[in-house]
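hey so u asked for the seq, here:
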Amino acid sequence: MDGVLIVIAILAVGAWQTRGHVRGAAPNFALQVLDGSTATLASFAGKPTLLAFWAPWCGVCRANEGSVEQLKEWAGDRAHVVSVASDYRDPEEIRAYAAEHHLGDPVLLGGKATARAYGVQAFPTYYFLDEAGRITGSSVGYTTSVGMAARLFALP
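ran it, structure tokens below
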């Protein structure tokens, strides 16, 4: 019985944390990538996609970097795992952070406007998209690479 109550509590907290998140089609974007190119939502069509919204000052984001990078390795070319820097002073701060923490590509310079478009109110926030760019789920806070993989590759 205690296990059931714990699961219900976890699901309720998750639902409350994501209550302001976007559902349905993911908002389009055209964002600069750290390599100087531009990425749009359409750039990631055709494969499941994880959009990981984070900020360089966020301790939980820092703690969860390993899980995101592990997911990139596991996903290989079967999915896109995209880091979206969302609250920072300037692009150089993100370049330095990405280099220091060995973040894999792509790292997008999203900014506060992109975070607002997705209803991001806390970091890290994760959006799981299907091959057509439709949102299949979202979560907030520390998430294991196994948990992210389960949501990213879940069947509709």
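The mean pLDDT is 88. The chain has one domain: 2-152.
lmk if thats what u needed
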